[in-house]
Structure formats: C-alpha cells, structure tokens
Specification:
15 helices; alpha/beta; about 375 residues; about 40% helix
Length: about 375
C-alpha cells in the first residue's frame, strides 16, 4: 500500500471442520493444505506461521508489518468510523459480543493474536456497521416502546458494511452514474442485502444483530418472534438454547443438515428433496427483499451479487432472478455461467435493470481505511 500490490493472498475454508482448506498464494507459489482447523485461533496461527516461513513466506520479521486491519462486525452505537484499537476499544467490542456471538469473539481473537505476533504494528478496527449509519430513523427504528430505543440503543444497525460499501462504489463507477438506485446482495455463509441510493445505505436486511433477514448458513433469518416464546413455553428451551438454535443450528444447516451451499447444491442435484426445498426457500426470501427494496428506492438501476455464493453460484443467481420480469430484470443464462473473476454483467440486452457480479474485496477496503486513518 498505497499501490494496492498484492504480495500474498489466501483463504481458509470450512473452519471448525477436520477437512478445513488452507490456501496461500504468492507471485511464485501456491500452497494448498487440507487439515483440521477447528477454530479461528488455529487458523490465524497457521497463517502467521506461513507468512514468516523461511522458504515461502513473504516477510522476514513481524516488524515488517506496520498496520494490521481487522474486520469487526458489531460496533453498536460506539463506533461509526475506522478506529485504532486500544484496551478500551477491545472492551467495547467484547461487550457487543452478545449482539454478534458468531463474529465479535472471533474478531477479538484475531486482534489478540495479531497483537502477539505483530507487537510493533498499529491495530485498526473497521466496523461492518459503519456504512449503514446513513439509514434514516424511520427505517432503523423498531415499533417497540420508545424508551427501549432511546435508553438501550435497540435499533437496526446493519452489517457486512465493508463489503456493501466496496461493491456499491465499484458498481457506481461501472455504471457511470453517481445518482443511482442499487440493491447489493452479499451471499456467503452470512447473507445480507442493502438498498443503496446515490451511494448511501438507506435500508438493510440485517438488524439489531446479524441474524435477521435472509436465510444463512446456520442463521435463521427472519422468523415470527412469537416462535421464541413458543420454544420457551411449550418446548421448555432456555434463552441460551434458543439463541444457539437460531444462530448456529438453523438456516441451511437446519433445513438440510449441511451449511455449505456447495454440498447442498450437489445433494439437490442428486435428488435430495430437503436440499431442493432449502434452495427454493433461500431464493424466495431474496426475491422478497428485491421487491421491497425496489419499492423504497422507487426504481432500480442494478442488482449486484457478491461474496462467496453470490460470485460463484450460477444456480442461486438463476433462481433469484427468475420471474422478475415485472421489475425489468432479465437474466442471460449464458452470461450467468461465466466464471470470470472481474466485474461482469449477466443480464440480457433487453433487461431494464442491470444484473452485475462484482467480486468483493473487503481486505482492500480495510487496508484503504486503515491507511486513511493514520494519513489524517
């Protein structure tokens, strides 16, 4: 940085499994390792070891790193911008773990390990909630007694903001229209959608915590809140059990027994009825949000697919875009099958709404924001 030159890149997939996949790529070498990575701590330790490896590593000393940028999911009301991490900041991130139990604890682990491995580097937090600070009050308030919003900050916060910000800016540049109406669809193990008007987030599918909205890998998405009372009273589940159920045992995992969409698509192709239905449920929920966001935007220039599933699953894109001709959305099947890794259009020439696949780059966005913090 600031030249945005990629020295190394990689990915750790299937964290929590015995057959996790570790990928590490440099200009001269690609390393792929299939091994047990049972938690985020083990994954980060393996990554740090690889960065410093005598033969294939890319740094000679931890002192070569001057800034470490961290994606932190929930900043609550405390953080609306990129922030240097201090003990006080860490305590606030920890306090917000109850709102993002799948993420903030892992984010803190990353910070702790990075502080140990790179003790001279500045640690920076980039919050997923920050991009959604522009959502108007009539959209972020819940219809509960006012005191709960005012005194306890219960409201819609929104998440995946780093990704939605990055791909929306790329889309606006691609369209050549600063005044634009866009729906960004981030589909990974966690899923969310954002209505973006003229570059600003005006509504978002995730709310007070990252469990509402779309069907996700292990999270339920939208449910009737009365189900929680039913589970407690009728089935005698306590609050911790219900929270675990909705956060870690629901979504695609609860519907099929699988949390990885690739497994679900393969099973569906082989006739697994549960997996076929789960894909329909997933796509149906996304289509409902497209309709509602097109309404609040009062029009639509483009819909954007991004993140692991959004960028790679032609089946999910096809299912989401089918039967939306009323909105002027027309998918081109042959373009949809392209596996290009750059920004690409996948709509028919007659489509009134552009359909784009825009690879997200949260790492670059975090690096930019981290550098900007110290430049200022």
């Amino acid at each position: 940085m600031p030249g945005e030159t990629i020295i190394c890149s990689g990915l750790i997939e299937r964290i929590g499994f015995e057959d996790a996949l570790f990928k590490f790529k440099t200009e001269n070498e690609t390393i792929t390792l299939r091994t047990a990575i049972l938690n985020h701590k083990k994954g980060l330790q393996l990554l740090a070891k690889q960065l410093l490896d005598d033969k294939s590593g890319v740094i000679q000393s931890p002192k070569d790193i001057s800034i470490v940028g961290h994606r932190v999911v929930h900043g609550g009301k405390h953080f609306s911008d990129t922030t240097e991490i201090t003990p006080e900041v860490k305590e606030k991130i920890k306090a917000l773990s109850s709102l993002a139990p799948l993420h903030n604890p892992a984010n803190l682990q990353g910070i702790d390990i990075a502080e140990t491995i790179f003790p001279t580097a500045k640690q920076v937090a980039v919050f997923d909630t920050a991009f959604h600070q522009t959502i108007p009050e009539y959209a972020y308030r819940y219809a509960i007694p006012k005191e709960f919003s005012d005194k306890h900050s219960i409201r819609l916060y929104g998440f995946h903001g780093t990704s939605h910000k990055y791909v929306s800016e790329k889309t606006i540049d691609f369209l050549g229209k600063k005044k634009s109406k866009i729906i960004t669809i981030h589909l990974g193990n966690g899923c969310s959608m954002t209505a973006i008007k003229n570059g600003k987030s005006i509504d978002h599918s995730l709310g007070f915590s990252p469990v509402s909205g779309l069907v996700m890998g292990t999270r339920s998405g939208d449910i009737d809140p009365a189900i929680i009372f039913y589970l407690a009273k009728k089935l005698k589940l306590n609050l911790d059990e219900i929270n675990h159920l909705l956060q870690k045992d629901s979504g695609m995992l609860g519907l099929t027994g699988f949390s990885d969409l690739r497994d679900i698509q393969n099973e569906a192709k082989n006739g697994n009825r549960d997996c076929q239905l789960a894909l329909q449920i997933n796509a149906y929920r996304i289509k409902k949000y497209i309709g509602s966001y097109a309404a609040i935007l009062n029009g639509l220039d483009a819909i954007v697919f991004t993140a692991g599933i959004g960028e790679n699953s032609e089946l999910m894109r096809q299912m989401v875009c089918s039967d939306l001709d009323f909105l002027g959305i027309a998918l081109d099947d042959s373009r949809n099958k392209s596996n290009s890794t750059s920004i690409r259009t996948i709509h028919k020439d007659i489509s009134k709404v552009q359909i784009l696949v825009v690879p997200t780059n949260e790492e670059l966005e975090i690096a930019k924001q981290a550098m900007r913090l110290f430049k200022n």
